[in-house]
Design brief:
The chain has 156 residues and is mainly beta. It has a single domain, classed as Jelly Rolls (Sandwich), CATH 2.60.120.10. Strands 1, 2, 3, 4, 5, 6, 7, 8 and 9 form a 9-stranded antiparallel beta sheet that branches. The N and C termini lie far apart (81 Å).
Length: 156
Amino acid sequence: MRKLALCLMLAALTFSASTKKSMKAPAHMVMAPSAIQWGDAPPSLPKGAKLAVLEGDPGKKGFFVIRIKGPDGFRVAPHWHPTRETLTTISGTFHLGMGDTFDASKADAMPAGAFGYMDAKMHHYAWMEGETVVQVEGMGPFVVNYVNPKDDPSKK
């Protein structure tokens, strides 16, 4: 009986040691504001916006985090995304409205620190008051589908 107990204990220790070796430590990253690299936003967004990728690749399948920076008055016409989108206003005021027609009176103001989300295919529009930075998180690919194809800046 003692031999069986000893064998079981050795097997458990061996399994435990091999499991710890095969497990990776979780990834960790901290990005200072000065390390954020801004570039021109893709053609699917109106000119004047800047975009920074903080995590993942918004053009591919998988989780991503981006920030979009726009000048005062920057507007995005009614559009939708094929995946859920979450938004956090970092600075300035981001205005978000729902529907197929741009109507500033029906939008919600999202000052710095505000959070919002929209499920896939929710039609919405936005504009920025003051220079504004908004963080967008979701599952890629990040695609902007304009309700009215004439509003798509990539087609102009």
